[in-house]
Design a protein that fits this description.
The protein is mainly alpha-helical and about 80 residues long. It has four helices and no strands.
Length: about 80
């Protein structure tokens, strides 16, 4: 049972519904990740995190694959499934 209250996709309206739709469309798995759902009660904050995440994972000095590899390695070191 989750300990953080979230807004389900079917219940999302307005800006939250737009963020969910955009995130789901951009997701390889076609889902809104649970980590993002934890911020669903604050669509303004979720939107800022989503925007920063997209900037972070765009190709620049490192490719998206390299960013993901580093994030996965750090998560494993921290024993975090994300």
């Amino acid at each position: 049972m989750p300990r953080i209250k979230t807004v389900e996709e079917a219940e999302a309206t307005g800006p939250l519904a737009e963020i969910y739709a955009r995130t789901k469309k951009q997701s390889v798995a076609g889902v809104v990740p649970e980590i993002l759902r934890t911020m669903s009660l604050r669509p303004d904050f979720l939107g800022a995190i989503d925007e920063a995440s997209r900037m972070h994972f765009t190709d620049g000095a490192l490719t998206r694959a390299e960013h993901e590899m580093i994030a996965s390695y750090v998560s494993a070191l921290n024993r975090c499934r994300y």
